[in-house]
Amino acid sequence: MATKVLVLGGGSGGLVAANKVKRLLGKEVEVTLVDRNTHHEFMPAYPWVAFGMREPEDIRRPLANLEKRGIQYLQATVEALDPAHNKVKTTAGELAYDYLIVSLGAEAMPSPAPDGHAPWSMAGALRLREALKAFKGGKVVVGVSSPYYPCPPAPYEVAGQVEFALKVKGVRGKSTVEVFHINPAPLAGMGPVISGKVLEILKSKGIAFHGEFEPVAFEGGRVKAKDGRELSYDLLILVPPFAPNRVVRESPLAGPQGFPEVDRMTFRSTRFPNVFVIGDTVNPALMLPPAGVVAHFQGEYVAGVIASDLKGAYIGEPFNPVAMCIMDFGDNALLPQCAFDRVLAGTGMPSCGVMAVGKWVRVTKMLFEGFWFATLIE
């Protein structure tokens, strides 16, 4: 009888994990992926939708395509986890499993700025697109509302892309673009080399950066910081706050802070050995960035661990602790890389550096978009 592997979440980590475990074990496993959405969307391309470089249909594929790969897809919302009895409650009924991979992501909270735009969802990207069409020039401010949010480079990329979009629109001369962040420097956790390079690119585009700017109020077209500083804006782009996923937070997997407790080297639950948690659902608790590339590598790794469990010998691959991110600034791009092996081992900070800078780097992101769909869901 086939082993039942249940994957919760059709984002980066879940999609990779489902494909990998099926490729490794074939008919030995019955793989089911559950997601409330009908489509998988290439999230790094949301800003491209906002700035008119892509249409929604360009960056999404039906999750039902997984059926062609021997993976069952169930459209349902996960309501509760019962790891003590190997069951998951969904809006489509109760599901049993032998192995569970949880990749439900983080939970977006209400934005503290009702007039803010957040192009980190399809709806948010389309809303910003309409706002940019009507924008005739003025003050653009990009910022974050909390230190915890998916894709740490996102606000800097969007600031660069909106600056480029204003150039194309012909209103750059009548506009200013500013970025604020709670941290003292861009991508401070990646070290001074990457921070310095991001600051250099922002400066070259005439974008001002405001560090250690902790927003406490948004009113009347102004954002106020805890230390008294203020920025005025005509167009606000704000990353909303995120919290640990509610379903996981309320489950027996969760620790005191709401994040699941897992082994740092295997992402296996410390309480339930047949449960793995990957991606934004757990990474902040592991001091790993909540980024798609990390979830991608975690998905590959836990699929190998499950295959090894069933085969009785290790047949997977070592976890790849190196994360790369193509930061698209519109008319320039940066490719930073960080190794997180010391972070996972609890022995130090990540080792980071710059792999490449230049307009051509943007092309690699576009090529990867096509590769992603072709290898996972087409």
Description:
By secondary structure, the protein is of the alpha/beta class. The chain has 2 domains: about 5-105 and about 245-320, FAD/NAD(P)-binding domain, CATH 3.50.50.60; about 110-240, 3-Layer(bba) Sandwich (FAD/NAD(P)-binding domain). The chain is built from 9 helices and 23 strands. The protein has helices at about 10-25, 45-50, 120-135, 155-170, 190-205, 245-250, 290-310, 340-345, 360-375; strands at about 5-10, 30-35, 40, 60, 70-75, 80, 85-90, 95, 100, 105-110, 140-145, 175-180, 205-210, 215-220, 220-225, 230, 235-240, 240-245, 275, 320-325, 325-330, 335-340, 350-355. A 5-stranded parallel β-sheet has the order 5-2-1-9-19, covered by helices on one side. Strands 13-12-11-17 form a 4-stranded parallel β-sheet. Strands 20, 21, 22 and 23 form a 4-stranded antiparallel β-sheet that branches. Helix 4 (about 155-170) links the parallel strand 11 and strand 12. Helix 1 (about 10-25) packs parallel to helix 7 (about 290-310). The radius of gyration is 21 Å and the shape is globular. The relative contact order is 0.16.
**Fourth-tier CATH superfamily name of the largest domain:** FAD/NAD(P)-binding domain
Radius of gyration: 21 Å
Q: Mean of residue pLDDT?
A: 95
Total number of strands: 23
For the record, give the distance between the C-alpha atoms at the N and C termini, rounded to a whole number. Answer: 28 Å
Shape: globular
CATH architecture of the largest domain: 3-Layer(bba) Sandwich
Strand order of the largest sheet: 5-2-1-9-19
Q: What fraction of the residues are assigned to beta strands by DSSP?
A: 25-35%
Tell me the CATH topology of the largest domain. Answer: FAD/NAD(P)-binding domain
Overall structural domain count: 2
Class per helix and strand makeup: alpha/beta
Percentage of residues assigned to helices: 25-40%
CATH C-level label of the largest domain: Alpha Beta
Give the number of helices. 9
Give the biggest sheet: 5 strands, parallel
Uncertain regions spanning at least 5 consecutive residues: none
